[in-house]
Amino acid sequence: MNPRVQYLSDQFAVAAQLGAADVPGVAAQGFRTLVNNRPDGEAMGQPVHADIEAAARAAGLHYVFLPVIPGAITPDEARAMKQVLTTAPGPILAFCRSGSRSANLYSLALQA
C-alpha cells in the first residue's frame, strides 16, 4: 500500500495514521526517515509505535518517535522536531492521526 502524503516542502511530507503494513510503501516512495508524532494509546485499535518502528527499521528507514498532544505542542517538542529536520536523512515523512499535528509541529520547528 502506498500511503497518501501531503508535501510541505521537497524534503518533508505528512500523512495520516500509518501501520506496520504501510511502511514498505513509505520506503517505496523514497522516504528515508519516518517520524511518528502520535502517542501510543491515543485511540483504541491504534498501531503501537514499537511495531511501526520494527517495520521501519526492517525497511531500512530511520525512525523517530516524537509523540505530541494536539493543541499542546511544547517549545521543547518543536526544538526536537527541528533537530530531526536538520539531522535525519531526507526526505522525511511524519504522521499522526490525520496529519494535521505533524504539519503544525513542522511549522513550529521552522520557527524554533
Structure in words:
The chain is of the alpha/beta class and 112 residues long. It has one domain (6-111): Protein tyrosine phosphatase superfamily (Protein-Tyrosine Phosphatase, Chain A), CATH 3.90.190.10. The protein has 4 helices and 5 strands; from the N terminus they run E-E-H-E-H-E-H-E-H. The chain has helices spanning 23-28, 49-58, 75-87, 100-111; strands at 6-9, 12-15, 33-36, 62-65, 92-95. It has a 5-stranded mixed beta sheet, with helices on both faces.
Task: Give structural attributes.
single chain; alpha/beta; Protein-Tyrosine Phosphatase, Chain A; 18% strand; 112 residues; 4 helices
Number of beta-strand segments: 5
Strand percentage, roughly?
A: 15-25%
**Secondary-structure-derived class:** alpha/beta
The overall number of domains is 1
Count of helix runs: 4
Mean pLDDT: 94
Q: Tell me roughly what share of residues is in helical segments.
A: 25-40%
Summarize the structure.
The protein has 112 residues and is α/β, with parallel strands linked by helices. The protein has helices at residues 23-28, 49-58, 75-87, 100-111, and strands at residues 6-9, 12-15, 33-36, 62-65, 92-95.
Itemize the secondary structure elements and their pairings.
Blueprint: E1 6-9, E2 12-15, H1 23-28, E3 33-36, H2 49-58, E4 62-65, H3 75-87, E5 92-95, H4 100-111
Parallel strand pairs: 2-5, 3-4, 3-5
Antiparallel strand pairs: 1-2
